[in-house]
Amino acid sequence: MDYNRLVIDTIKQAFVSYTSGILPTDNINKAILNIEIAIDNAITEDKETADLIALKNDLEDIKKYAMQHPINVEVTSRFYEAVNFLIENKTIRGKQTYCMAGIDKRSYYRQESDYQASLLQFFWLIPLITEYRINAKWLLTGKGGMFEKREVTEAVRLLWYSLITF
């Protein structure tokens, strides 16, 4: 494998993504994995590994820095707050039930134990918003209430009125 090309491509993608504010953590994770394999191969072949280890550490620092941004940690915290609230109120059975939406359980539990880990994916948030009516604005910014305010329709008003006047 051409590790120079791998690094160049990963860094180029990171710079492009930097402008959008989204770090390509999946690509960085793949690059780190490939570098770990290269380190293992170099050790097996009794070759120098210092440069590969330094490169791996640099990529891990980039990934860690991106996730340590307070906004990322806050969104992660609110995500778990919402899921735990739904579990405590028996809206969902448990964490594994929530993970059935395609979330890797190991990543879910690892992220839960360390909010600064860079494992939370945007698609993890979608069911909270679409299925459980968690307020997207609250989830992303902390503003507003945890749940969406539902509009009281005319039919609900009439039903409520008929119940209280019965």
Description:
This protein has 166 residues and is mainly alpha-helical. The chain is 67% helix and 0% strand. The protein has nine helices and no strands. Helix 2 (25-44) packs antiparallel against helix 3 (50-67). It is elongated. It starts with a helix and ends with a helix. 15% of the residues are buried. The model has no long low-confidence stretch (mean pLDDT 81).
SSE arrangement:
Blueprint (H helix, E strand, L loop, with lengths): L2 H18 L4 H20 L5 H18 L2 H19 L6 H5 L5 H9 L12 H5 L5 H6 L12 H11 L2
* Sheet of most strands: none
Strands, total number: 0
What count of helical segments does DSSP give? 9
Q: Level of helix content? A: 55-70%
Describe this structure in a few short sentences.
The chain is mostly helical and 166 residues long. 67% of the residues lie in helices and 0% in strands.
What are its keywords?
9 helices; 166 residues; mainly alpha
